[in-house]
Design brief:
Length: about 250
């Protein structure tokens, strides 16, 4: 089971994931252990998958083949279409076909000095590029938790504009942390976050360290405190409302 989130930003891409991998026979889970769910491929591309581990391995291999075959020199639409097609061909070789593909993924990549985030849909692997209109996505078993929480954060902070990388890290960490605390099982920490950012004139991926995330964790605690202070403020207002005389 997995919780992954991607945000397309004005200055790059941020992808986050939980770190719990569940073992079992497909119906009954047996054990859970931590694992890294965000892959860096060719020092250029970020991939985070949800679903069967074996399919994730094969999808990441298709991304690597696409990079070596120069598919990331095409337009973003053609690149994503070719990745989808090649992954589906690979999956069908072992009898896995639409709509029974227990896998989906987020891929962040640069083409021609621009950054992109593509969602490859669960069960279909159909590509959908994130844009200025639809710029965030969550996938996995906690989507019913993470989608509404992301919508809440968007309404408060970024109703009419794209976030920057720093703001997206804050949103993703808070959302996955919330999902970990309230989900019924199968999603757990530590939270892993990676970014695709421009450095030395070109886009490159980087996984964030605990030190990188410390400031964002503090900012989340500050936001929670502000909400708690608002509750106290509301209570104080209620306490001083004069009673209306009764006749």
């Amino acid at each position: 089971m997995t919780s992954i989130i991607g945000i397309y930003c004005k200055d790059g891409v941020v992808i986050g994931a939980d770190s719990a991998t569940t073992f079992g026979n497909g119906r009954i889970p047996t054990i859970e252990q931590p694992s890294e769910k965000i892959e860096v491929i060719a020092d250029k591309i970020l991939v985070a998958g949800t679903g069967e581990v074996g399919l994730n391995q094969r999808f990441c291999n298709q991304i690597k083949i696409a990079y070596e075959s120069k598919l990331f020199k095409d337009s973003e639409i053609e690149c994503c279409r070719n990745i989808s097609r090649n992954a589906l061909i690979d999956f069908e070789q072992t009898g896995i076909k639409i709509p029974n593909i227990n896998y989906g993924a987020l891929v962040a990549f640069p083409i021609h000095d621009k950054h992109y985030l593509c969602e490859f849909g669960i069960n279909t692997i159909q590509p959908e590029l994130k844009t200025k209109k639809i710029w965030y996505v969550s996938m996995g078993c906690t989507q019913g938790i993470t989608d509404p929480f992301l919508a809440f954060i968007r309404e408060i902070f970024w109703e009419n504009e794209l976030p920057n990388i720093n703001e997206a890290i804050f949103a993703i960490y808070w959302t996955i942390d919330h999902a970990i605390k309230v989900n019924p099982g199968g999603v757990n920490g530590p939270i892993s976050i990676a970014i695709l950012e421009k450095s030395n004139g070109s886009f490159s991926p980087r996984k964030l360290t605990d030190e990188d995330l410390f400031e964002h964790i503090q900012n989340i605690e500050d936001a929670k405190k502000a909400l708690k202070d608002y509750k106290t403020f509301q209570q104080s207002k209620t306490a001083v409302i004069p009673k209306v005389p009764q006749r």
